[in-house]
């Protein structure tokens, strides 16, 4: 854009006789020269906006492309090669629009997600934990939940790798997630590097008991848009598994615990019209090691219930805002053809009782 803008200045220079421009053989009127200047400035401004990471840079360059292409047609013999640059930049505008539109959707959903956010302070009391299975009580104590303010909202970041099929290649992932616990839900926003310069933008959400997975190639072309009862069930189970990062949710009224043995407990969550269960496994210190449940696995011929496992990195526990939680996990499907580990992640920058400011 900057190069194109600088080249376009030649039309203005030629029109006003500022310098000799041998590359332009036709006479350019002063009014036309002013349009060459306007187009040049629009390209230069857009380039500056792009380098300053302003997502709306493409809005400024679009009128510049239109003005410049009209001028190119008027002075075709001298300026026709500028059409190639216009087409390249127009393609970039399309990608810029995709990113802007995707991010605008995310901001709207964040505002809506936190619109009913509970801000009521709630202390965790010892008697609230007393009715839980002994190993879950130990988890609560070791996490640091007793006596602190109940968690209402969470924000954290993830880095990791994922693949979409057992034979696929690992792809780097950067993600951030927002969680609510009073009315359970989450928003997960991810950037996946599918190949050099080829990115997938992902948004997985669980709101009002409904799940929705959306993935777009280059933030523009939908490659996955999944909804329905199977997605709702899977989203609820994901929320349950991720309680290891917001253990206060274990005390919410939509969650029920049943002892299995000394190191395992069954957790059941009922919200909306979906009920699902899984098994948490702990070590003798009360640290969660594993979550296992039956979750719907998407297939071409239709979703099937398969064993879904989240393994926790035993040596990865850190303290954030007074809570001790794990930071490393991997997610695996136990399929008939063998295990399919599809996501490995690490948590960072975890904040509790996060306050969202409307965009």
Description:
- The protein is an alpha+beta fold.
- 33% of the residues lie in helices and 35% in strands.
- The protein has eight helices and 15 strands.
- Strands 6-5-4-3-2-1-15-14-11-10-9-8-7 form a 13-stranded antiparallel sheet, sandwiched between helices. A two-stranded antiparallel sheet has the order 12-13.
- It is elongated.
CATH topology of the largest domain: outer membrane lipoprotein receptor (LolB), chain A
Structural shape: elongated
Q: Give the N-to-C terminal Cα separation.
A: 29 Å
CATH-derived architecture of the largest domain: Clam
Q: Assign the structural class, choosing from mainly alpha, mainly beta, alpha/beta, alpha+beta, or little secondary structure.
A: alpha+beta
User: How many alpha or pi helices?
Assistant: 8
Q: Which CATH class of the largest domain applies here?
A: Mainly Beta
Give the strand order, joined by hyphens, for the main sheet: 6-5-4-3-2-1-15-14-11-10-9-8-7
Rg, rounded, reads 27 Å
- The total tally of domains equals 2
Series of H and E elements = HHHHHHHEEEEEEHEEEEEEEEE
Short précis:
The protein has 359 residues and is an alpha+beta fold.
């Amino acid at each position: 854009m900057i190069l194109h803008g600088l080249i376009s200045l030649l039309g203005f220079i030629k029109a006003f006789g500022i310098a000799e421009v041998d590359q332009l053989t036709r006479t350019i009127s002063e009014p036309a020269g002013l349009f060459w200047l306007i187009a040049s400035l629009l390209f230069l401004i857009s380039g500056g906006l792009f380098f300053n990471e302003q997502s709306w840079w493409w809005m400024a360059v679009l009128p510049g492309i239109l003005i410049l292409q009209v001028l190119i047609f008027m002075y075709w013999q001298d300026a026709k090669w500028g059409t190639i640059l216009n087409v390249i930049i127009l393609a970039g505008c399309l990608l810029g629009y995709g990113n802007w539109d995707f991010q605008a959707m995310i901001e709207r959903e964040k505002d809506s997600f936190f619109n009913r956010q509970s801000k009521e302070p709630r202390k965790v009391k010892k008697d609230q934990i007393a009715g839980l299975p002994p190993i879950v009580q130990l988890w609560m104590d070791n996490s640091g939940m007793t006596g602190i303010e109940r968690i209402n909202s969470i924000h954290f970041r993830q880095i990791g790798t994922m693949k979409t099929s057992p034979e696929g290649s690992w792809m780097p992932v950067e993600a951030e997630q927002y969680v609510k616990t009073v009315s359970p839900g989450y928003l997960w926003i991810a950037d996946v590097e599918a190949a050099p310069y080829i990115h997938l933008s992902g948004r997985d959400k669980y709101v009002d008991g409904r799940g929705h997975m959306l993935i777009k190639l280059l933030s523009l072309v939908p490659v996955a848009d999944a909804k329905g009862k199977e997605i709702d069930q899977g989203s609820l189970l994901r929320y349950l598994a991720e309680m290891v990062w917001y253990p206060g949710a274990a005390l919410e009224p939509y969650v029920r615990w049943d002892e299995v043995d000394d190191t395992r407990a069954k957790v059941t969550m009922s919200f909306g019209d979906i009920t699902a269960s899984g098994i948490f496994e702990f070590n003798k210190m009360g640290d969660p090691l594993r979550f296992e449940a039956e979750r719907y696995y998407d297939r071409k011929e239709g979703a099937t219930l398969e064993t879904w496992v989240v393994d926790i990195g035993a040596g990865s526990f850190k303290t954030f805002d007074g809570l001790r939680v794990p930071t490393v996990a991997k997610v695996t499907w136990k399929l008939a053809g063998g295990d399919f580990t599809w996501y490995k992640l690490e948590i960072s920058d975890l904040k509790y009782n996060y306050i969202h400011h409307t965009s």
